[in-house]
Amino acid sequence: MIGDKIRELRLEHRMSQTELAKAIHASQQAITKWENGKSEPSSSAIIDIAGYFNVSSDYLLGRTTDRVPDKDLSKNQKLVAYSIDPDISNEERQAIIEIVQAAKKFRRRI
Question: Do residues 6 and 46 both lie within one domain?
């Protein structure tokens, strides 16, 4: 599963395995093995991959479908953001979360 995520992110960024390997200081053979499920990246490699693609390690590990966690929102704020429309894209959902965060900051000033 993690190999599928790595391949998906690499292809979204239109990178070759060699380019990704250079970016995260790994070998091209390691990237190939990860993507083919023949081996799994170390915890430090997962951190490097997550940082490079700006996603959470939980996303890479398949523990969440959210690429970036929204840590600053309360449970109620998350419910508002996600209940507006369950079929919206991740980009639209992120925009809603940012609006909720802005409203939260504005509320503190009053």
Answer: yes
Q: Taking Cα atoms as reference points, which of 1, 15, 4, 5 lies closest to residue 67?
A: 5
Residue 53 CB burial class (10 angstroms; 0-12, 13-18, ≥19) = buried
**What does the pLDDT read at residue 110?**
47
- Rounding to the nearest 10 degrees, give the CA dihedral for residues 97, 101, 106, 108: 140
Give the integer Cα–Cα distance in Å for 34 and 28. 10
Query: Domain span at residue 33?
Result: 2-60
pLDDT tens digits, 43-74: 889 989 998 988 888 889 988 887 776 555 56
* Residues contacting residue 78 through CB under 8 Å, at least 6 positions apart: 70, 97
Would you place residue 106 in the very low, low, confident or very high pLDDT band (cuts 50, 70, 90)?
low
Is 80 contained in some domain? Answer: yes
